[in-house]
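So, can you check this record?

>
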Amino acid sequence: MHGCPPRHASSNVVVREPPERLNIVAAPTEGGAAMPNAADVLWFKEQFQSSIEPALAGTPLTVDMIVAVACQETGHIWPVLRDKGLAVPQILALCVGDTLDADKGRRAFPKTRADLLARPGGAQMFEIARAGLVAMAQHIPGFSGAAARPHKFCHGFGLFQYDLQFFLTDPQYFLQRRYEHFDDTLGKCLAELKNALRKLGFVARQSLDDLELAAVGIAYNTGGFKPGKGLKQGHFDGRRFYGEALFDFIRLSKTVALPGQSPPLAMPPAGVAILPPPTPPAATGPFFRVDTAVSTLRLRSEPQVSEPPTANVIGELPDGHLVRAVTGRATRGFMEVETSLQGALLHGFASTKFLKAEPQATEVPVQGTDEPATELPPGVTAVTMPRRPGSRTRRTDLANAHSLNESGAPQRQGTSAGELRAELAAIIDWLAVDEPAHARYQPRQGLTFCNIYCHDYCHLAGVYLPRVWWSESALLRLQRGEVLKPLIGDTIREMRANDLFRWLADFGPGFGWRRTGTLTKLQTAANQGAIGLIVARRKEDGRSGHVVAVVPETEAESARRDPASGEVVAPLQSQAGVRNFRYGTGARDWWRGEQFADTAFWVHA
């Protein structure tokens, strides 16, 4: 029954200071104003998308990226103003902020009021900056304290917060208040974003994925990007880094489209994360079909058999599976191929001995895109272990086949990525897998309980991962139309980690699960509040496999990334097993151990 920000300045300015506006985001929120939501994004697109689209020509930047920057920079201002019914020109004029002074850490010009007044035109600029702060603070309570101090004035101007340090090189932009005009403030933003594209080597790219767009935003905010740090870069507001928040806004914006248009991503219901569709193969070479007649075919990360043989295996391709070559040229008996397996994009090297040309093929089908997700057989439904009326299953009880039903358990019900992450963190802390008193998860007598912990995590998150499942004979009877009672040892049986591996492949898609091909995608999904699993099947069926939850990164806990590429090499995990932990990265590539026959990464929105 068991299984084991400173934004980058031009070359004549050294640094741009982190805007104080981000340090007081909580103040306007507590005063009744929330950060941008889907309705705010729709309003923004209705007002400005027609101006943004032509300005992006010849760049890989997107409207959603621009929306996200506006949300991150002044999203605590313009949604409040538009809810109050202010006209667009008034809103643009009041999008000012950043009152940080030298005593609070500002290093760029102007550090103080006196610093500004000492410059030509500085007195006029101070009056403009001071008046902007006072006018904006009448609508945004979080700035009322700064507005009450006569030496305070704004440093950031426009929807995208062009910093006053540039008064030294372009004073007329500020004195003429050109930041109040959308095309002007957008132009300043795009100039900096294009500079960030150059820094990251993206200028010639035709398109960028969401993580790459967020990297551009981080470079826009800080002047650079360090791949090994992921999105935890840029200004830190006490809860989230600039890059993390920007990514959330990019994903949110992609769920919103103008009337008559379809958004790239569907807006999910409450308690469900935004999850992009599977990535289709991009290879353009000839098609082949796996032809082994004896076993699955190992897909490897390099054109050679590793030592041990499982070390470089990234997937097991079923016999008969369709793949597409990248070039069609073999290297040391291996062909570089791409394919899609249950929604996971896999790219690697397969032995040419077990590939048969398939000249009639036109595309590799992608589950959920070109072909529907696997449907459940007729009559087959979710099942749980029945219980006696009034009985309770607690964390402090020894492990059994029942699901938890303690009162007060947290759930996943949020409508934003931030809410979903917080709720998953609350579930992890409530389950407290490392708490000795929680006997349900503590290893004993050679037994470990990874399967039960992952079941409980999914159960509280509103996702079905079975603790018990129908027996083979019961499945056949259900498909014949029989109505069966769940009886342990008869029609249902407990699920170990090895059983979960097979169940996810056979039935998981019918319950909303799909595979993903990389640890980076797996961690990214978890960071958006989705459910992630790594499941490894043991070679010996009598021995326990292993399953862990991949969980959202927190302020204190992070996945491990390759310093050069930024790819996740060890996701943030939560597990029961020989060693129980709420958060950890575990042994690198533990799932590729010789004891395991196969591994899969699964996500559920």
